[in-house]
Each structure stands twice: as C-alpha cells, then as structure tokens.
Design goal:
This protein is of the alpha+beta class. Helices cover 30% and strands 37% of the residues. The relative contact order is 0.15.
Length: 156
C-alpha cells in the first residue's frame, strides 16, 4: 500500500520535531551532545517536514552558509518510513526552495566510509543517488572517532 505524504516548510516547533525524530533513529544519532546541538540549532534554520495526515514522519533542516551555498544541517525520517521516497522528496523540496533564492550549491556532512558503519553506508548511498559527490574527508572535524565526509551538489 502506497502511503501519501506531504512536504511543507514549517516555522514552529522545530526543536520538538527534530528531537522526537532523532531520538527514534538510534543507529544514526547516538551522541547526546550532538542531538542537543541539533535540537537547539534547528530553531534558527529553514525546516521542511514530511507528514502523513497530521503525523510528522521526517524533517530536513537547512543551514545557510553564504548567498551561494547551503547545507543539509540535519535530516531524519522515522525508520518505518525509510525507502519510501520521503527523504528524496524532502531534499528535492529544499533544493526548489534554495533555487528560488539563487543558491548554487547544497552540501551535506556525514560519517565517512573510513569509519565502518552500516547505517551511514546507507546514508552515503542515498546522497550519492541524489547526485551528491564526495568532496573532502575531515578526520577530526567532529572527533577522531567520527571522521566527517563533506559531500556537495550543484543545484543552480
């Protein structure tokens, strides 16, 4: 059965949405200080949500860096709704939003393949399927046990 979901930009309850979904994704979000930072920071960034009826099942938050570039700051889809096109649609809607504002690049930081992690291998595969390219690895940006991979996509 195909579930119908809707994507929309939101301006309220961003922290609550972020916290509920990130805490449900334990394979990806295990570092308490990182969760707290995301929950606090999303208040100031544009956010898109995915919902079925009134049930929020996913979100994507954008961090604006310059007039040319933005970053997928944090994104999460409830596990029961993975592989249903929701993440792809959230990314596409955020790109449309950025294109209207003449942004040229969208980036995302994720765990590098140099740290073996099955969940993040899926994450990298997802971003590559959307046209993101690995740009650079930062071995200590987060900490030495969590090497960061910067990926980028041209959007305009």
């Amino acid at each position: 059965m195909k579930e119908n979901f809707k994507i929309q930009k939101v301006n309220r309850n961003k922290s609550e949405i972020c916290e509920e979904i990130l805490r449900s994704l334990k394979e990806w979000f295990q570092i308490e200080s990182a969760i707290k930072n995301y929950v606090n920071d999303v208040k100031k960034y544009p956010m898109f949500i995915a919902k079925i009826n009134s049930h929020i099942i996913g979100f994507l938050s954008l961090k604006i860096h310059t007039k040319y570039s933005a970053e997928i700051y944090v994104m999460g889809i409830k596990k029961d709704f993975h592989k249903k096109g929701i993440g792809k649609k959230l990314v596409h809607e955020s790109i449309k939003y950025l294109q209207k504002k003449d942004f040229k690049y969208l980036s995302v930081k994720t765990l590098s393949a140099s740290k073996r992690n099955k969940a993040y291998a899926q994450t990298r595969k997802f971003y590559i399927s959307l046209g993101f390219c690995p740009l650079e690895e930062f071995k200590t940006l987060w900490d030495k046990n969590n090497p960061c991979l910067l990926m980028i996509k041209t959007i305009n």
